Amino acid sequence: MTQQTKAKTRNVDIFFQLTRRHLLVFFKNKIRLMYTLLVPVIIFVVYIFFLRDLELTSVKSALAQIGVDKPELQDTVNVLMCDGGFWKRVSTLVDCWMISGILALSAITVSLQTNSVFVEDKQNGVNRDFASSPILRNILVTSYFFFNFIVTIMVCLAFLIICLIYLACMGEFALTFANFMTVLTVLLFSTISSTLMTVFLCSFVKSEGTMASIVAVFSTAVGFLIGAYMPLGMLPDWVQGICGFIPGTYSCALLRYGFMSGPIAGLTEYLSGTLQLTECAPLIANLTDTFGYNLNFFGVSVNPQYQSLAIAVFIVVFLALNIGVGKQLASVLGLGKKRRKKKSK
């Protein structure tokens, strides 16, 4: 074995050892672990017990408004208002809409909270040990990324399983195998983009207090900015413009395509087949607009192909940014000042 091969093997071993170390540090803090795991679940529980009925009420209001705006559909609206099968399928749509939003939100918030590990390393001086050891900075930085990705995807997959169990128990499981694979693929790339974005933002943070403030503020605001809690069309135009520069906005929309395509197809089949309604197309279009199913920025519709392209562009951009500021992630507090003093002498 050549010297170069031995060096590569050693670097790979160091990389996995560092990743293992980060995971152990993260899972050792039980309070942080429980908070990270429970945040998406708590949001989901709040939705089930408090927000679900409000969402269904908003759909009823939108349906009634359709009858007012389009008198030719008034008879159809009156029939649907009293039809249990129709509302069962609408409930499935509402649940899938909210689940996909919370899942997209979780990819961001979990990744953000996971960054507290390397912030603690900076504050506690652990990075001094890394800096004084023969560990390449690129290996250390990559291990932080990989650790963040592992934790985020694990938590998101666990939450996805909980949501699928909920849908099955409610008799609302409408995902085909193709839909399920779409959700998994989107979730994978959403996790990558979220990890790159949050690590870049937190690479400049140097204290746990600052980190806690960022997590509290960002986690509260981002749910609205990506359309997880409410359709983006309800926001002012200038806020929608800001939303277009957040990767989670496109992740949320793509996850909704994966989750909601089956229920929409089932609802369409029920209206046209079982109820034999001839004017179901405009009705479905109005319902999907109520949910903010389609993305529109400044009057321009963004279809799934361009949404996927947007996520790919964000991954490339944040990857380049992280490469450019990678030294911030592995920086040692106080080291720069000492070096400047020595040079001045």
Number of helices: 15
User: Describe the biggest sheet?
Assistant: 2 strands, antiparallel
Shape: elongated
Structural class: mainly alpha
Q: Give the number of DSSP strands.
A: 2
Helix content: over 70%
What is the distance, rounded to the nearest whole angstrom, between the alpha carbons of the first and last residues? Answer: 46 Å
Low-confidence stretches: 335-345
Radius of gyration: 24 Å
What percent of residues are in strands?
Answer: under 5%
Q: Summarize model confidence as the mean pLDDT.
A: 84
Q: Strand order of the main beta sheet, please? A: 1-2
Q: Spell out the helices and strands N to C.
A: HHHHHHHHHHHHEEHHH
Structure description:
The chain has 345 residues and is mainly α. 81% of the residues lie in helices and 2% in strands. The protein is built from 15 helices and 2 strands. It has helices at residues 3-28, 30-69, 74-81, 84-114, 116-124, 126-132, 137-169, 177-202, 208-225, 237-243, 247-274, 280-290, 304-324, 326-329, 335-344; strands spanning 295-297, 300-302. Strands 1-2 form a two-stranded antiparallel sheet. Helix 4 packs antiparallel against helix 7, helix 8 (177-202) runs antiparallel to helix 11 and helix 8 (177-202) packs parallel to helix 13. The radius of gyration is 24 Å and the shape is elongated.
